[in-house]
Each structure stands twice: as C-alpha cells, then as structure tokens.
Design a protein that fits this description.
The chain is of the alpha/beta class and 428 residues long. The protein has 17 helices and 16 strands. Helix 8 crosses helix 14 and helix 8 crosses helix 15.
C-alpha cells in the first residue's frame, strides 16, 4: 500500500503544513517551527508536551487535537522508526475504507523490527472501521498504536470501537508559554498559538483559510449538518457570543433555527475540537448565583480573533482584555491536559454582575484576568468570591509590572502567573 511509510518518515504534507519542519532532534525537545532561526521559536518541550504525552511501552494511545497543532510533527520525531498511515492521503484512505482488513494484513507481514515500534495512524476518524482491526491486533498480536484525530464526531455518531480502555487518551493544544522563549503577548493574542500562525507574517490570510477549511473539511464534507446556510450563520454568531454567557434562544433567532438545533451546532464544534464550554461554579450557590448558562471558548485565541474580526494594535482596551482572558484559559487548559490532572475549570458570576473568570479545583483557586490598570472596583468580584468560598489562592492576573497584595488578593504580572502555573505552584 503506497500510503504507509517506514522509519525516518517526515511530517505528512497535509497535517501541520509543509512549513512546519523538525529543526532539531534531542532527547528533550521537539521543534514545531519553520526552518528559520528565530529567538522566539516555538518548540514542543519536555516541560509541556513530552511530559504530558506520558506514553508507556506496550500501551496504545489516542492523541487528539485540532488541525495544525503539531501532532504529526511531534510524533514523527518522537517515534522516528514507526510505520505511519496518513489518512489524509486519499488513495490510502480509499484503499482502507474499501478493505479495512488490509491494515491487519500489512502489519502482520511487517518485520519484527518494525512491529517492535508503535504504528501511527493519522486522522483515524476518517476510517472508523479500522478501529476493529486495531482492536484485534492489540489483543491477538500485542501491537501498539498511536492514533491521532482532529474530530471525535464521526466516531461517536457511528458508535465506533474506541478500544474499551486499551488506549490511553492524550491531547495536544496550541503552543504554550514554556515553549516560546520571550513570548510576545500581543503577537500571540493577534496571531494565535498554532505554530504556523504564530510565526507567519501573513497570519491573517492563514487564519481565514483555517476557518474556511474547518467549515468545508470538518463540517460540510463530513456531512455533520445538512443546513449549511444556518450553520454558517451560527459560526458568525460565535463572534459576539464568544466568552460570554451562552443564550441559545438569541443565537437561534439570529440563525433562523430553534434552540435545540443551536445546541446541536455547539456540540458539533466541540466534537470537532474547535472549542469547549466552561460551566458555572455552583458549589453552595445561592439564589444570586448563576448556575445554568455556560460560556463557550474557541480552542485558539487567534482563530477566535479571525471569527470575531478582531484587530489588536496595543495592549489595552476591551478587545485586548477579552483576548488576554482567553489566552490565560488556554494556558490553564493545556496545563491540566499535559500534567495529567483532572481539576475542574469553572467561572463564577452573580445575577448582580459580580464575576470571577476562572475557578479551579472545586474552588481551591480563583483567578480574575485584567488587561488594564487595576482599579479598586476590579477587586469586588474576586473579593466577594473569596469571602463566600474561601479559596486557598485568589489571584488577579494583570499587566502590572510588579506583584502586590490588595485586600488580601494577589495581583500578579502575567509572566509570573504563568511561571507559577507551569511550576505547579497553583495546582498539582
């Protein structure tokens, strides 16, 4: 079969883009950037990804992540001797769709030296029937697999064989701060943290193409919705509802569909790994606390900016503050995934408007994010939460140059906060 590749295979042409090449191979670093020297070069570091991808020999794994996060490049360097099946190659995909047993036949015929390494199947959601063959090979031939995917929707709807605990689940997120020395915050908020976009001077066109390709390849071509015009209007509506309390009725009215359909559209976006919902913190919630409506965030701050048509020229203003909050959430979500922790991420809000952006670990840590100068009124929400729920740590992540404490609340520069987060000082 022409699509399978043996040892030393480079990244696929359709995954992270031809501009993403492995720059260096060491025991601790996997680079995901372009072939240009750059002091701010993103890299997949031991601190974040490799410690998060805690793969064990004799164990298979799913590696989930949106397109262009760097899954293929990472695995090509992490497992350079593995045989790879790239299901973005149409000839290979059609062969395996027509006769899934061909995967088993090829792997059984592979030399013992090849079978000693895990087999990598990219974009496995495109051929769910292969999972039955994978299951059989794990059980009967003790073969290990690394299965990547950018959408779980097709697998869920088709009730595909998800291997019943025989494969661990891992996630790959966009770049995180430990991977980018001297992180340029404004650049990150404007371009996003997909490796190709962060380094791309033509990032606007790249982001627009990413959104168009998502709609075409992940949603429309896969037949995830029949009402293409309504879903396109819903996608535009994500712009004004992003990071806000989700009002299904209002969005449904704008899209010309009912609320049930809007909820289904949100589920499509989440199943295709483009975003997630943050639920309200309800522990000991009284009548004054919002307990039902959640908040939806896209997986990348740059993609969110493209959908909302946001332009940031300086680190100030309401739009900057929203993007800054989103960036902090991305770091928290990646920390939780890469550290293998399972702490909850919520927000807290009262009906009178008092709010805390993120509440972690069942109320252990309260985090408010402020993109401008800290004024006395900015402490009201987190102070109210602290008085009611007594978190172990209450922090305002800020643009302030130095840390301080006001009314018992820590005000921390954003770089210091990220150091504490990835140093496991907040939650571990």
């Amino acid at each position: 079969m022409g699509g399978a590749m043996l040892g030393g295979a480079g990244p696929r042409s359709g995954g992270c883009g031809s501009e993403l090449r492995v720059l260096s191979e060491t025991n601790t670093t996997v680079f995901r950037g372009e072939g240009v020297r750059d002091p701010a070069r993103p890299r997949r570091s031991l601190l974040s990804v490799q410690s998060g991808f805690n793969y064990r020999p004799n164990k298979s794994a799913f590696l989930w992540g949106p397109r262009k996060t760097g899954k293929t490049t990472f695995l090509a360097q992490r497992f350079p001797k593995s045989m790879r099946y790239d299901l973005l190659q149409t000839d290979l995909l059609f062969d395996l769709l027509k006769r899934p047993s061909r995967l088993r036949e090829e792997i059984e015929a592979a030399p013992a030296a090849v079978r000693a390494h895990p087999f990598v199947i990219d974009e496995v959601q495109k051929a769910p029937a292969l999972l039955d063959e994978v299951h059989w090979l794990i059980e009967n031939r003790h073969i290990q697999f690394i299965l990547t995917g950018s959408s779980a929707r097709k697998l869920k709807r088709g009730r595909a064989n998800l291997l019943g605990g025989r494969a661990w689940r891992f996630e790959m997120h966009p770049l995180v701060s430990p991977e980018i020395p001297d992180l340029d915050l404004l650049r990150a908020l404007q371009r996003g943290l997909l490796p190709a976009h962060y380094l791309d001077p033509h990032y606007r066109r790249s982001l627009q193409a990413y959104v168009r390709d998502y709609l075409k390849e992940e949603v429309f071509d896969e037949g995830l919705t029949r009402n293409i015009p309504a879903f396109s209007r819903f996608f535009d509506a994500l712009g004004y509802s992003h990071g806000e309390l989700t009002n299904y009725a209002n969005i449904a009215r704008d899209c010309g569909v009912d609320s049930k359909t809007v909820k289904e559209y949100y589920q499509i976006v989440m199943d295709t790994l483009l975003g997630s919902t943050i639920a309200p913190f309800t522990k000991r919630g009284g009548r004054s606390t919002i307990t039902k409506a959640g908040k939806f965030y896209l997986f990348d701050v740059g993609v969110a900016g493209a959908i909302t048509k946001r332009t940031l020229t300086e680190p100030r203003g309401e739009e900057f503050g929203r993007a800054f909050e989103h960036f902090v959430l991305m770091e928290i979500q990646a920390h939780r995934a890469y550290r293998g922790l399972d702490y909850d991420i919520h927000f807290w809000r009262t009906k009178s408007g008092l709010e805390v952006d993120f509440v972690l670990g069942g109320g252990e840590v309260a985090i408010e994010v402020k993109g401008g100068p800290i004024r006395p009124g900015d402490l009201r929400g987190i102070r109210a939460f602290a008085d009611e729920h007594h978190p172990r740590t209450a922090i305002i992540v800020s643009m302030e140059p130095r840390a301080s404490v006001r009314e018992g609340i820590e005000i921390v520069p954003w770089r210091e906060f990220l150091g504490r987060l990835w140093g496991d000082e907040l939650l571990s």
